[in-house]
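FAQ

Q: What does a record look like?
A: Structure on top, sequence underneath. For example:
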């Protein structure tokens, strides 16, 4: 699934570029700093460390990330966000960067203690329904942006790069929202990837199993909150609180996931995929597929191996 992209940021004029590799523009406050990096030359092995918990977001181009101590490389493109703990470091390749096609990313560096306070605030004000703490999982650093995280990131960039005398206060308020959005994105990714096997999934295990077994059938919400052992209102509140989306959106995501599996089969027509994955209207299926994936089912099928 394609992540939601941040708005483009104006490139630094040529006469103000000090280096072709990771030219940095910084906007600093007492407890956080926004850096905008631009690279205009293909290179590899650029080593980066940060002085606090760092939220990076790609804006233009492509990087290949190598986390120190990890063998696997990660392709990093617009629509994605990478989380780097204060003790983290990475080596970066820029395979496609050029003066005509620069890479650009943001890095919001936050004092670790200040970042931890944002999580403490969530845990004090709104504990999760199963008693677990709100937390950031360092083993899941790469995220696909949703519209909410992209909107908040754009807003943080505007505030920190602007001249508002209250930017310290504004940035703290936005940071609380960003932290909540990041935790929900991680929970959601775990839910979509592991489903009922996710280790924290105490209330929603039966719900996920039921949805995945019944994708081709109508899925009444009444059945879902009964399986969770909650009232309707408590179920909606707990589900949305934890994942940042409602149960109906989970059903849609699961149907799209199954549809992509079927579209990869060369002998299954798109119309048949539509009905087999629980959609009753091919036009609605196509609209939702393009909204979530950025391309039509037909285009996805042609791009699949053997398509």
């Amino acid at each position: 699934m394609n992540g939601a992209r941040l708005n483009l940021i104006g490139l630094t004029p040529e006469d103000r570029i000090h280096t072709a590799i990771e030219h940095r523009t910084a906007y600093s406050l007492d407890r956080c700093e926004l850096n905008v990096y631009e690279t205009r030359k293909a290179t590899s092995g650029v080593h980066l460390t940060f002085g606090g918990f760092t939220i990076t977001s790609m804006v233009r181009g492509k990087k290949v990330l190598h986390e120190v101590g990890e063998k696997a490389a990660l392709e990093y493109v617009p629509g994605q966000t990478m989380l780097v703990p204060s003790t983290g470091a990475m080596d970066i390749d820029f395979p496609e960067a050029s003066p005509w096609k620069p890479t650009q990313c943001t890095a919001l560096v936050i004092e670790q203690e200040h970042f931890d306070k944002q999580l403490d605030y969530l845990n004090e004000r709104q504990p999760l329904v199963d008693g677990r703490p709100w937390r950031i999982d360092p083993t899941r650093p790469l995220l696909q942006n949703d519209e909410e995280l992209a909107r908040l990131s754009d807003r943080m960039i505007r505030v920190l790069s602007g001249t508002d005398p209250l930017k310290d206060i504004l940035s703290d308020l936005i940071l609380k929202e960003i932290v909540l959005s990041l935790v929900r994105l991680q929970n959601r990714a775990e839910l979509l990837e592991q489903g009922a096997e996710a280790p924290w999934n105490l209330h929603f295990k039966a719900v996920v199993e039921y949805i995945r077994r019944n994708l081709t059938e109508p899925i009444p919400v009444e059945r879902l909150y009964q399986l969770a052992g909650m009232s309707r209102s408590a179920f909606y509140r707990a589900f949305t609180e934890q994942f940042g989306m409602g149960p109906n959106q989970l059903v849609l995501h699961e149907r799209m996931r199954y549809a992509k599996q079927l579209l990869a089969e060369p002998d299954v027509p798109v119309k048949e995929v539509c009905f087999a994955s629980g959609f009753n209207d091919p036009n609605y299926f196509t609209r939702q597929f393009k909204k979530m994936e950025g391309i039509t089912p037909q285009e996805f099928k042609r791009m699949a191996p053997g398509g």
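Q: Is there anything notable about this one?
A: The longest helix spans residues 167-194.
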